[in-house]
Amino acid sequence: MVVAVLVCFLALFARLVQLQIFQGEQHRSTARENIVYQNTLATTRGVIRDAMGRVLAANRPSYNVYGVPAKIDLEKVWPRAVELMRLGEQEARDLRARIVAIRANSTRLATQQSLLVADVDRDVLGVLETNADELPGIEVVPSPVRYYPYGTLGAHTIGHMREIDGEMLTRVSSRGYKPGDRLGATGVERRWESYLKGQRGWRKSLRGVRKGKNLDELEARYLEDPRSLEPVPGRDISLTVDIELVKAMEQSMRGQLAGAAVVVDVRTGRILAALSKPGFDPNVLSGGAGKTEVRDAFRRLYSDPLNPMLDKTISATYPPGSTYKPFSALAALADGTIKPSDEVDCRGGVEYGRRYFRCTGVHRRVNLHEAMVQSCNSYFYQLGQGINIDRLAQIGMDFGFGVRTGIGVNPEARGRMPTRSWYTQHYKGQFLGGWTLLAAIGQGATTVTVLQLALSYAALANGGTLYQPQLVRSIETSDGTVVQEFPPRVRRVVELDQTDLSLVKLGMKGVIMEKEGTGYKYRIDGIDMAGKTGTAQVDRATGRGADQQKVWYFNRDHAWFAGYAPADSPEIAIVVLVEHGGGGGKNAVPVAMKVVQTWNELKQKRLVQKAKPGGASRSRVQ
Amino acid sequence: MRNKELSFRSGPHVDMPLLVAIVAIATCGLVNLYSATSPYIGSGTHGRIADIYVSQIYWIVVGVLLGVITTVIDYRAFERWATVLYLGGAFSLGLVWVLGTDIRGASRWIQLGSFTFQPSEFMKIVIVLMIARYIHNDPKTEPRTLIDLAPPVAFGLVPALVVMAQPDLGTAIIFIMTTLSVVGMTKIRSRTVFNISVAAVIGMVLFWNYRASLLHGYQLRRLESFVNPDADKTGAAWHALQAQTAIGNGGLTGEGFMQGTQNQFGRLPDQYSDFPFAVFAEDWGLLGSLVLLVLYGFVCIWAVHIASQARDRFGAALAIGVGAIFFWHTLFNLGMAIGLFPVVGITLPLFSYGGSSVVTILISLGFLMNVSMRR
């Protein structure tokens, strides 16, 4: 009996040794975790501003209604809550069913807050707060949501936010993201995410300290240093974009279904405005209105045949059509295969090989200048017969076509400058000379992005300097101190004969200013602009069984205008693309005209403002 | 034997080792109770919990007085009163059904004026007296058979079934284990031992299979969470895991008196009733726990020693019974605190807060002292 007792006590002792000695460290750390709690301190995302300091993306509080299922009285409190929150009948029934389900399934979840309604209106918020006493178990909790004051304006450039889902979390959790966080999904929001997001802080605190205890003393004893880390707010970002110019673009393209436009400063390569149409509202996609809204919005956007989510200034390529002619002309002039005075008799087209290459009309005898002004294809077919296709691609590459511009924001398309080897890779059989003819007028396999075209025209305008496109001008701390300023960067200086260039530029001026010019009819008096129209044929897609009206639309030509202003001392380059818009002169030039007009007005206004001290003020929204 | 006739007044013959051990345990228990309830000092609504060590002192005083009485009166007198006491105890157990006060879903208490008492606690020692009386008056010297064992086992088993229905599983277990310990002291036929063992195994298997219908909800959850603690860390297993964390946190030397964080920050549940040892082990570490184990172990072994030297069968059975009460309480309470047994409400002698428990233990120890002094 004594032995049995001894054995029992030895067993107890052995277990104590196991708990206190062998597992001691482990239990000690568990005990510490039990009392030391690390609270997360939220940070604020950086603000995005335009060139004039106007806020393009900021944070606003959104108010979510949470409820503790176990605490909500479904008989008395719930009907009142439904009434105050102005829920629909179906919505109220669903929510009630969810509360009942949580209660039945898990006692733990039932005692924790769960989200009932996301982002309630301001007036509902007011009603809920004044009647909080009547609603035990229901609480309104603020949480920041990204806010884009200009809505769809510049949405592709600025971007939107998305909530981190499970699959994504595994990739980004090492960078400090937590479930439910949002991060930039497109545009500047995505590209500059690491600067904008800021850094969370934390503060350690003791849990379960009884009333009447000396908290400071306990904290000194149990909280190891450092006891807290202050959150670092995200960096603010200033863009080169002037949102008012974007607004002007949007207004001048009201009549068009789809398209894109870019304005670039020819002296810096800074993007002053960019628009892709149709657009989307980043406010909805960023989750302010709740998850179902986000899902619905995405479904709508991705089923739209006009591709609203695509940034058509950067991510899509189009045949440049006649807007490529200045480059063909420059190549031929430099090689001496044409002389400015050479004339071609245009009879509405050229026969080459076994094909007939059409012109836009019958231009009769035209020289280079007239061919540019009237956009005569026959002249450029003739030019194409005397030049190597690789040479045409070469000058295109010199001006930045066929390679990514390196803007960094949004996935960038490369475009294509077809060479002989490209054709041998992609087409069986003999290389056809006709392909060179098509390349000379910017058709065939040649494709460019709107941004590439704008930068190349900026290079034409400034005498051959090709700039790196620039969208972000500076990064600042939240108190306005500039952390980093980005100077313009030159990608390359294209070697050009300035007399050749001035010939081509004269032609481009004629497009707008001369009576025969393809853009003359659509000019606005007093607007000084030069450029080239384009009407780019698209691959005929005969969608079988498709809606006839839709087929008609998608088979229409793209309308282009690429140019710069003012014509003689250029400051900005502008490219307008109206997708399936038809003739370039009729459809694209008026848009460009109106944008340049607004740009002029804005410039005048700012000159006046600058004269007055303190005229331009920065607005801040946190 | 010369000192056979000596009364307790002959001071030198008081069982000093036993007395010292009891005083040491009681002192540790009281000090530990102060530490266990210290988080509540000055904390408004729960402030009165911090004062329960004062009422524990009152109970100890009452217990010591009653213990002295049971020491002074020759234990043989209780042999004559055992039947009366047993019937009285059984009656008061029955009274619980009528007058019972519900505390935490179990009616174990009887309200007497301003304080409540728990008849099932006192029943423990009464059962021991009754069985001891039976063994004493049973002249049999050859090994006992199952039929011989039936009456003494019934003395413990019937009250056990009653308290189990209260429901109070812990007390029922103590009744049964104590009964078996005392009965097991007698000479039993080896075939009977074998039969009982087989029956016990079968009984346990049946119990496990029908546990859902035999046990109350919380008992079942505790049992299942003991078998599989990871399944429900926040639920039923939570108490046991927190207690183990507290004990492990004590390490070798402990966090120091009133410094155990698990207790001080309110992470330890039932720290003054079910888990006082967790508080002690966290404050004093393995070294302190070792001292305590030695004290408890000494009392249990000393009880066996006293029984072996007792003058008659009644005394021996009584000593074994008291030792068994003490031993099983200690074993189950410590075992549950360190995670060797599932959580059942069994108190730690002289450590757990509770008037009935303290008084019963002190009365029982009085009997032990009594037997020791009259050998």
Quick rundown:
The complex is a heterodimer of chains A (622) and B (375). With 622 residues, chain A is α+β, with helices and mostly antiparallel strands.
Task: Summarize the helices and strands and which ones pair or pack.
The complex is a heterodimer of chains A (622) and B (375).
Chain A (H helix, E strand, L loop, with lengths): L1 H21 L1 H12 E6 L6 E2 L5 E13 L9 H9 L3 H17 L1 H4 L3 E4 L4 H9 L7 E10 L7 H4 L2 E3 L2 H7 L9 E3 L2 H5 L1 H4 L4 E6 L8 H8 L5 E2 L6 E4 L3 H10 L6 E7 L5 E7 L4 H4 L5 H13 L21 H11 L8 E3 L2 E4 L2 E4 L5 E3 L1 H7 L2 H9 L3 H10 L21 H7 L7 H7 L9 H12 L3 E3 L4 E5 L5 E4 L4 E4 L4 H16 L16 E7 L11 H8 L2 E8 L6 E7 L5 H4 L1 H23 L11
Parallel strand pairs in A: 2-10
Antiparallel strand pairs in A: 1-8, 2-3, 3-4, 3-5, 6-7, 8-9, 10-18, 11-12, 11-23, 13-16, 14-15, 17-20, 18-19, 21-22, 22-23
Chain B lengths: L15 H22 L14 H21 L2 H25 L1 E3 L2 E7 L2 E3 L1 H19 L8 H19 L4 H17 L4 H20 L1 H4 L2 H11 L10 H13 L10 H4 L11 H33 L4 H25 L17 H19 L2
Helix pairs in contact in B: 1-2, 1-12, 2-14, 3-4, 4-5, 4-6, 4-13, 4-14, 5-6, 6-13, 10-12, 12-13, 13-14
Architecture overview:
Chain A is an alpha+beta fold and 622 residues long. Chain A is built from 25 helices and 23 strands. In chain A, a hairpin with a 5-residue loop joins strand 11 (259-265) and strand 12. The longest helix of chain A has 23 residues, at 589-611. Chain A is elongated and about 125 Å long. The termini of chain A are far apart. By secondary structure, chain B is mainly α. Helix content of chain B is 67%, strand content 3%. Chain B contains 14 helices and three strands. Chain B has helices spanning 16-37, 52-72, 75-99, 119-137, 146-164, 169-185, 190-209, 211-214, 217-227, 238-250, 261-264, 276-308, 313-337, 355-373; strands spanning 101-103, 106-112, 115-117. Chain B has a three-stranded antiparallel beta sheet with strand order 1-2-3, with helices on one face. In chain B, a hairpin with a 2-residue loop joins strand 1 (101-103) and strand 2 (106-112). In chain B, helix 5 (146-164) runs antiparallel to helix 6 (169-185) and helix 6 (169-185) packs across helix 13. The longest helix of chain B is centred in the last third of the chain and has 33 residues, at 276-308. Residues 1-6 of chain B have low confidence and may be disordered. Chain A binds chain B through residues 1-2, 5-6, 8-9, 11-13, 15-17, 19-21, 23-24, 26-28, 30-32, 34-35, 108, 206-212, 222, and chain B through 39-44, 46, 185, 234, 242, 244-252, 261-262, 265-267, 281, 285-286, 289-290, 293, 296-297, 300-301, 304-305, 320, 327, 331, 334-335, 338-340.
